[in-house]
């Protein structure tokens, strides 16, 4: 038991929870808890004491008051797709599972907003708005399963961020329950605001400032026309050079993506997408807008690609072909499971003009470590996703993969980038926060967290480097533990 | 451009002021001084304000100390290929716009203090111009040239371009600031995508200096559209206005800006390739053919937008109140304001109301009180941007517990901004 341990026994806690929830919405049996032990980053696993499944805002507020009173750590969870260990439970805490708070409360086609509960699946918002010719722009690769509550907590991105921004740019308002149990409204349905942008501050706070229970998101008119091009290149560098030319031309494509040969191989095996033979990299560029503007811009884009080192070009002739190009791109993460027993998904950012140099350096690090790295990334905004391939059955390969991952993150910081573009810090990257922001500013952020949550019960162990580590490795010592970064409870 | 030594000396000096001053000593930041409502009454032009319009002071014996950013100027780093620019807080917005313009880039939210879109036209024209809508386009020139980047962020005010690409909040990436304890801090990162740490740059937008003294800020920039075309719809009643805007919003027309003018007519701006704009405009016109519509290009277009901006910002002796809104609530607000003799326009497709009236000192407190009551009843918030007032926020106050907890860390003694 640590200094921060709950001041209530598990039995007493369950009794108190039963005063808030009916029995069928409190899970505490071993089998019931298994599904909540980890998230998308499976190297961290921890069984919580219990899981509660709220349906109403007041149930959440009462739970948070209870947790604050008895110092019980809690983790809000949507679909559990976090790739940074953002919703890994705490051994002495509970999980607040929000997946059943999944109502779309309102779609307003005139104001172009939707009001949704946190458990609504990202893609469901677009489906609900489609009838009005509207859509929800942020499109993380997991958009078919991830929830908007999780997207908000970690400021999720997607392939269209350069032009359309991240989740924080599309959340206009939120009703939130603070860790104290207070319910406050931040922002609203308007595009405008007076006073500081409190909702902007809340988005991306990784659950440390509380739980968003009603979220107002902006909807955009679905573009009238798309033009999606896939071009093959003899190297990652030549594909990167083409990106620089496109951006310098003044075009603002909806998306600019690059996949390397390993990613292509994986996507081909997973979903059958075919890529230009011998291509070492492919560039995907998508223009969107009015019919007239896309017609003109596609000529400009074609000229730019022809002037680049492209070896082959495929233009999506219809919606099906466009969908297939995106299916290959969005399946790349999970598809690498077909070419490697295990893999780590990295997420970091570099200034766009440093892409070529950083990719070469990553390749060199890969050779030195003997660990393969597949690259698929949002080239338009410099958001890299190196996929570090390893075999967990081979002794110490995970440790080498983790070490390589750390070197890549450090590399990105040295080039003026960031440790995460869209997955958040979570557990995975908290030790890099001081490298990015400096000790003083990280401590300042921790003071902000304490001002909201004096007992640090809300998603304890995330974002800050010296927090308790709520997770265990499957077998033996976790590499982070062996490095003294994480510790067992 | 590297960090400027003289600027950094200033920053360190201010940090020392904040560190060394007693807890009761308040501070305020003055940039270009273009938003007098956001300054303490002691430094506003009229020192004879009625008592009920004066700002309350934390310590009557200790007037707030001014931090003037007018010498904290310069572009620290501009990387056109990265779509980012970093500038000191005291840099005039007009200078930033000129530098971006030279590289075919701009800040799409269009700070209303500088109509960046029409820079070239501005340069070609000199002196006063009276436009078709009966206004002058040079009245706010002096004010526009003085508006600083820090003031723009602290005030958090967007122009017509907010509708399409987002507001200032969506383009600020990193901010360096001095907190209330005198520590120089940084939030965010100079890259166009970042999900690490709390989003302090966004918090600074609209904060009116209450969380820190902004030292420098980094923005994402976009390529500037090649050309613009404006459609001016003139319906007979407000109902027609709402129908026009609703139709515009529910079609995939990729519109740059939609503004509702005081006469209920609607300015709609399209941007892109010149060749595409006319065809695009004709398609919109044909869908709304029951309303009179004229196409504005060149000088006419420039004048129409300048007149609109002047209407909001160009009246020196007026009070200006910003009220975030939604299109559906325009009728409600209109009805509530009927008896108060307040002029108004609606920006960003009805997402903001700009309420304006001539400032009469003897009537000001009473008028503000009535407005505050009306906004409370409608559950709306307002912010006085120009004109004398004791409190520049009005109406409903949302998110207070969240604000207070943040404030307790950024400024534990409550020395920044106004009490």
What would your notes on this structure say?
- The complex is a heterodimer of chains A (489) and B (419).
- Chain A contains 17 helices and 20 strands.
- Mean pLDDT of chain A is 92; it is low at 474-489.
- Chain A has helices spanning 10-18, 30-33, 57-70, 122-130, 148-154, 161-164, 198-202, 236-248, 261-271, 291-307, 319-330, 332-335, 355-369, 397-414, 433-437, 439-452, 479-482, and strands spanning 26-27, 50-52, 74-77, 94-97, 104-108, 113-116, 134-135, 171-177, 183-187, 211-218, 220-221, 225-233, 255-260, 281-289, 312-315, 342-345, 348-349, 372-378, 383-384, 386-390.
- In chain A, helix 8 runs antiparallel to helix 13 and helix 13 (355-369) packs antiparallel against helix 14.
- A 7-stranded antiparallel β-sheet of chain A has the order 15-12-14-13-18-20-16, with helices on both faces. In chain A, strands 5-6-10-8-9 form a 5-stranded antiparallel β-sheet.
- Chain A folds into 4 domains: 10-97, Uridine Diphospho-n-acetylenolpyruvylglucosamine Reductase, domain 2; 104-221, Uridine Diphospho-n-acetylenolpyruvylglucosamine Reductase, domain 3, CATH 3.30.465.10; 225-335, Alpha-Beta Plaits, CATH 3.30.70.2190; 340-424, Alpha-Beta Plaits.
- Chain A is α+β, with helices and mostly antiparallel strands.
- With 419 residues, chain B is an alpha+beta fold.
- Chain B has 3 domains: 1-111 and 147-224 and 399-419, Uridine Diphospho-n-acetylenolpyruvylglucosamine Reductase, domain 3, CATH 3.30.465.10; 227-310, Alpha-Beta Plaits (2-Layer Sandwich); 315-388, Alpha-Beta Plaits.
- Chain B has helices spanning 5-20, 93-102, 119-124, 141-146, 149-155, 162-165, 200-204, 238-249, 274-287, 298-313, 330-337, 361-377, 400-410, and strands at 27-30, 65-68, 75-79, 84-88, 105-106, 172-178, 184-188, 213-220, 222-223, 227-234, 257-260, 266-272, 292-296, 318-324, 343-347, 352-358, 381-386, 393-395.
- In chain B, strand 6 (172-178) and strand 7 (184-188) form a beta hairpin.
């Amino acid at each position: 038991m640590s200094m921060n341990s709950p001041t209530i026994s598990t039995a007493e806690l369950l009794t108190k929870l039963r005063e808030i929830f009916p029995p069928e919405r409190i899970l505490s049996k071993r089998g019931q808890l298994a599904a909540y032990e980890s998230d998308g980053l499976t190297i961290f696993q921890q069984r919580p004491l219990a899981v509660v499944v709220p349906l109403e805002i007041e149930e959440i507020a009462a739970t948070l008051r209870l947790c604050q009173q008895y110092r019980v750590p809690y983790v809000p969870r949507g679909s559990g797709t976090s790739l940074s260990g953002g919703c890994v439970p705490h051994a002495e805490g509970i999980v607040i599972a929000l997946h059943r708070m999944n109502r779309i409360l309102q779609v307003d086609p005139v104001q172009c907003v939707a009001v949704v509960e946190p458990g609504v699946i990202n893609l469901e918002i677009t489906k609900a708005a489609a009838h009005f010719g509207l859509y929800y722009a942020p499109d993380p690769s997991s958009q078919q399963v991830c929830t908007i509550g999780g997207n908000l907590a970690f400021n999720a991105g997607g392939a269209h961020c350069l032009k359309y921004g991240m989740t924080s740019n599309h959340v206009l308002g939120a009703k939130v329950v603070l860790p104290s149990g207070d319910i406050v409204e931040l922002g609203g349905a308007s595009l405008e605001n007076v006073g500081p942008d409190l909702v902007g501050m809340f988005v991306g706070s990784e659950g440390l400032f509380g739980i968003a229970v009603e979220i107002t998101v902006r909807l955009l008119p679905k573009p009238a026309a798309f033009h999606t091009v896939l071009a093959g290149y003899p190297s990652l560098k030549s594909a990167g050079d083409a990106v620089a030319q496109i951006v310098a031309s003044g075009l603002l494509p909806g998306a600019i993506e690059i996949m390397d040969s390993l990613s292509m191989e994986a996507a081909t095996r997973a979903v059958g997408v075919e890529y230009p033979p011998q291509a070492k990299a492919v560039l995907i560029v998508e223009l969107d807008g009015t019919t007239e503007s896309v017609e003109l811009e596609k000529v400009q884009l074609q000229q730019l690609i022809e002037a680049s080192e492209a070896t082959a070009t495929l233009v999506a002739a219809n919606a099906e072909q466009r969908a297939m190009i995106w299916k290959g791109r969005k399946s790349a993460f999970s598809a690498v499971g077909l070419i490697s027993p295990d893999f780590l998904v990295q997420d970091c950012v570099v200034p766009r003009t440093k892409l070529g140099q950083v990719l070469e350096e990553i390749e060199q690090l890969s050779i030195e470590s003997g660990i393969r790295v597949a690259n698929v990334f949002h080239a338009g905004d410099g958001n890299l996703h190196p996929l570090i391939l390893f075999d967990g059955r081979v002794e110490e390969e995970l440790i080498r993969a983790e070490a390589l991952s750390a070197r890549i993150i450090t590399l990105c910081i040295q080039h003026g980038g960031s440790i995460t573009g869209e997955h958040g810090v979570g557990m995975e990257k908290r030790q890099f926060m001081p490298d990015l922001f400096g000790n003083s500013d990280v401590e300042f952020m921790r003071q902000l967290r304490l001002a909201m949550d004096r007992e640090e019960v809300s998603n304890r162990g995330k974002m800050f480097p010296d927090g308790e580590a709520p997770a265990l490795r499957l077998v033996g010592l976790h590499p982070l533990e062996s490095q003294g970064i994480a510790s067992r409870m | 451009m590297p960090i400027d030594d003289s600027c950094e000396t200033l920053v360190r000096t201010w940090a020392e002021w904040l560190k060394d001053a007693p807890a009761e000593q308040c501070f305020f930041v003055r940039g270009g001084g273009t938003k007098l409502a956001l300054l303490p009454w002691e430094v506003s032009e009229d020192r004879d304000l009625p008592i009920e319009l004066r700002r309350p002071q934390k310590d009557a014996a200790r007037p707030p100390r001014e931090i003037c950013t007018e010498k904290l100027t310069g572009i620290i780093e501009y990387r056109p290929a990265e779509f980012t620019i970093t500038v000191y807080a005291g840099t005039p917005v007009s200078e930033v716009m000129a530098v971006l313009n030279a590289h075919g880039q701009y800040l799409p939210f269009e700070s209303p203090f500088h109509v960046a879109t029409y820079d070239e036209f501005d340069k070609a024209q000199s002196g006063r111009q009276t436009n078709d809508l009966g206004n002058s386009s040079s009245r706010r020139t002096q004010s526009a040239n003085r508006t600083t980047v820090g003031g723009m962020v602290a005030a958090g005010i967007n122009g017509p371009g907010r509708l399409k690409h987002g507001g200032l909040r969506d383009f600020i990436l990193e901010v360096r600031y001095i907190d209330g304890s005198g520590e120089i801090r940084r939030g965010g990162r100079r890259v166009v995508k970042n999900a690490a740490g709390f989003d302090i740059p966004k918090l600074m937008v609209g904060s009116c200096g209450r969380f820190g003294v902004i030292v420098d800020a980094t923005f994402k920039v976009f390529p500037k559209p090649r050309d613009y075309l404006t459609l001016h719809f003139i319906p007979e009643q407000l109902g027609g206005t709402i129908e026009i805007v609703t139709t515009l919003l529910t079609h995939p027309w990729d519109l740059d800006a939609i503004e509702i003018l005081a006469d209920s007519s609607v300015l709609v701006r399209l941007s892109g390739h010149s060749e595409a704009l006319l065809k695009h405009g004709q398609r919109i016109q044909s869908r709304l053919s029951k309303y009179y519509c004229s196409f504005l290009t060149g000088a006419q277009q420039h004048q129409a937008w300048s007149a609109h901006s002047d209407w909001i910002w160009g009246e020196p002796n007026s009070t200006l109140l910003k009220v975030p809104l939604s299109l559906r609530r325009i009728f409600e607000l209109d009805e509530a304001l009927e008896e108060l003799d307040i002029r108004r326009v609606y920006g960003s497709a009805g997402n903001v109301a700009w309420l304006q009236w001539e400032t009469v000192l003897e009537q000001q407190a009473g008028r503000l009180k009535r407005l505050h009551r009306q906004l409370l009843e409608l559950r709306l918030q307002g912010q006085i941007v120009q004109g004398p007032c004791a409190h520049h926020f009005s109406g409903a106050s949302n998110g207070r517990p969240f604000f207070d907890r943040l404030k307790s860390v950024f400024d534990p003694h409550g020395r920044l901004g106004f009490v």
